[in-house]
Design goal:
There is one protein chain. About 50% of the residues lie in helices and about 10% in strands. It contains 32 helices and 22 strands. The longest helix has 24 residues. The two termini are about 40 Å apart. About 45% of the residues are buried.
Length: about 800
Amino acid sequence: MSAPVHPPVPHVVLVITKGEAGGAQTHVLELCRALQGRVRFTVVIGGDDTHSVLGQALGDLGIAVLALPSLQNSLNPLKVITSVGAMLAHMRVLQPDVIHAHSAVAGVIARLAGKLRQIPVVYTVHGFGFKPQAPWLIRTNAWLAEAVLAAWTTRMVCVSAHEKQLAARLPMPPERVSVVHNALADVPWRSDMAAQPPRLVMVARMAAPKRPDVLIEALALLAHLGLQPDTRILGGGPDLARHQQAAAPMPHIQLEGDVSDVAQRLAQHQIFVLLSDHEGLPISILEAMRAGMAIVATRLPGIEEMLTHEESAWLVPNSPQALADALQTLLADAPLRQRLGRAARARYEAQFQPQAMAEPVLAIYQQAPLMHTARWPMTRPRRHTQQLASQQAHRQSAHLVWSLLGLAMIGLAYAISQALMASGHATVDFGRTVLASLVPYALAAHLLYRGAHMPAAERGPLLLVTTGLPFWLTPLAFALLQQPYSRGALLLTYVLCTFWFWLADQWFLRHRPWRLVYQDPRVPDLLAPWLPQPDGQQLPRIRLLPWPDQGMPPGAALACDGAVVLPAGSASPSPERQRFLTTLKLQHIRLYSPESLQQSLTGRMAAETLQNELWQTDGNPAYDLVKRLIDVSVVLALLPLWLPLALLVACGVKIDSPGPALFSQRRTGMHGQSFRIWKFRSMRHETQLTPQFAQANDPRITRFGHWIRRTRFDEIPQLFNVLMGHMSLIGPRPEQDGFVQQFAEQMPSYPYRHLVRPGLTGWAQVQQGYAASADETAVKLSYDLYYITHYSLAMDLLIVFKTIQTVLSGRGAR
């Protein structure tokens, strides 16, 4: 029984401006605790201290923490640019699946870096700066910053429904905004609500929008009534000294600054107070609810989502008198305090446990890589409409556009020619040659278009031969037409056009990964042997994206180039699979089988194709005719070179060992016709009763035979086979008659390699080398079938180029 296949663990980088104690920091810590093991977190904290309150807590969990010294609570343009640069450096090393930003300044830096690195960014809003309570100038600037960056926010998480209502003012699709309430893990400490006299506590950062000053003034009013409850105000901040001075006349009020044991401190009090001008969903109230305390808080939209007035809390306006009245009531009514504490604790248990936060956030992490962001600020993502086309069709479409734009290179060369002619440095032939170069440019563009199916790793050599040959043959055309031309102009246009197509190759292949979504967890293991290494330089860069367990938000356009789907026979039917396929089809996403991807990545057919009795393909009759004319023309044109060389090799064979210079054997050619192939003898002359493969370091090979095999000079007599029509210069190597029947029985697709003439060299030869066993022959056949399916002038030129490399290196000789 096979081991269960586990889904991949996403790598998420959390970014937060400060590591001090606070609500956003507690949220980050609880999120890491809840999803540890299901998500691989790395946390980037602003400032240069990785041993902050948050940093130490994360370190105790074994989570990597990085400092970003330039990230501070400031939007100074110079600091922003520095922070974005440092963030990009981290992203190049970490290569996360998702960036998750917390707090406003971290959100700016993360979204800019994510856009530049093409990494999806999730932004959790702990409180918008453009709330109605904020001053007009601050409100306007905050809205403008969020509106600009909304285009590059893959998903936005609001901690309250009120924040989501504010997010509706931003130019952002509503399906990208989610409400995920804050949550806290439970602790053993509870408030003793029966204790007398009751004690008060407030936990808040001593800075806007928190209002401890209102509490101090309310306590002053109670003091005039003879009520002096023991009160602790916990939390540090820039306004701490001012509030300590205001509370100094009242010794029953103590402001203690930052503390690390908030849960234990809360358990020592009975009434919790939080006063603020605006809030999202404050963590400190969750801590009080968890402790089972009676809560008095400002009546704000975010707080009203957590608590109900007179049912689970006492909500008041931000005025000292209203607060004093509420505190006077609670101090005098112990049953009321206990009832409010029990109700708050019950609501915490029902709605604010960590799993209630973790599951939606995990779904967002899974969905984010599959969602587009807009290209420009203040715009919405546009829906892509060409996903149904294959990767080859996309590449051909992009190549056509690039080729038309490339006419500007010819225009540039012509402008240079006119300038040189005006200055007397060039003749009129220079300009005419530039215009005539439109013909080799068009031919090069056509050859590259035809070679769009080639594996990405072959694009470099293909570019060299397809741009080089047309321009190298152009002087011959001028000579045949007896027309003058400029070699400098031809060289100029060749360099510019090659650079242009090279730039397209860099742009379309090297900087944009091929994003493929999958639903079956077996897919990564099936594709692993064929995929480039994630940290390597192989092409193309492929990114496999798992389909989210919860599916995608309604209306969200998928940001992928295709989907990998296992055939119905190998995948068990399920409602999830059907919904997955339906979503893909409705969005016109191209579907790929693992076998078709293997073909695209490796330039060979999958093993399943070799065993498929129903697999069929057709030849290319038009190119077959052109190819035959090229074969005969090339062999006759090079006759003065190869015929004397053949005579010299024949003499070498005769001198090296006794026996005839030539060796002949029956081979199977086009349409299964048997013919006699000729080679220079490279082995000892002896009778061969049964066909057999040559082995590495075969003892039958003579000294001179080793050399002619390495240089491929033993194949020269096959040029006569080419003239006679038995063979082509390029095609699958002909196999011995004795092996053909055996291989056809073992591999049902084997006979289709006889759709074309066998060749002196072929795709299998330059990719694999010599096949010396049935297993290696199966690999060789996979390359041959790929060639037969896709052969063209562009592919044949690439084979010629790689054959020259093989001859010079001696690779693959036996």
